[in-house]
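User: Predict EcsC family protein's structure from this.
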Amino acid sequence: MVEAQEQEEPLNEAKAGKILDTIYEKALNGIPMVSRSVDEIADDYLSHHDTPEAAARSLARWQVAKCGTSGFLSGLGGIITLPVTIPANIGSVMYVQMRMIAAIAKMGGYDVNSDQVQTMVYMCLTGSTIADIVKETGIQIGTKSLTAAIKKIPGAAFTKINQKIGFRFLTKFGEKGAINLGKLVPIAGGLIGGGVDVASTIVISRNAIRIFIEDETLDMSEPTEEETSDTEDTTVKATD
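Assistant:
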């Protein structure tokens, strides 16, 4: 279970960025005896499929099916101390989805420890676009390709960008910077009957594949009937 500090603190850009950074680090390394690291997951799937795309789509189907399983999050285990109080289940959702994105990035040959890829993962998780970055930071990148755009961003700007992405994500449906928990849940992945909202996980996995495998732009449209049915017969494994 992902836990936050008991004493509630106001959310600001710095704390929002730290939330994403803390969960990202834990997602990369995994939780001992509970979930594997991103490297282990990527290597496992690549060894069982002929192409990175096939491996990524297989992981996505598994993650979507598993996230829809009632009570899955309660078995996550581990503790992440966050710089601001958010419900443990939301932190768990962010962990699961961020790890999936990072694993797909690894399958696509990206260095998940780089600042550029870390920001791309955050953009995929939150649905942020290149236009959002230009608007929030004033950095002109002049390209529609996310990968090419990220490469043009000065290294010193990533902390600021990540903070803004995190803050907009966590307060998207809040007022005056306050987290509106009832409205935050579906954005972060959602909880329906103890399981993670399948639809949002499908959208996130789709975008991870588009960005890190196909080098395409984000597609935030609702899941198609084909995408939804593609997960129905997936058998959920007992690990990760």
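The longest strand covers residues 191-192.
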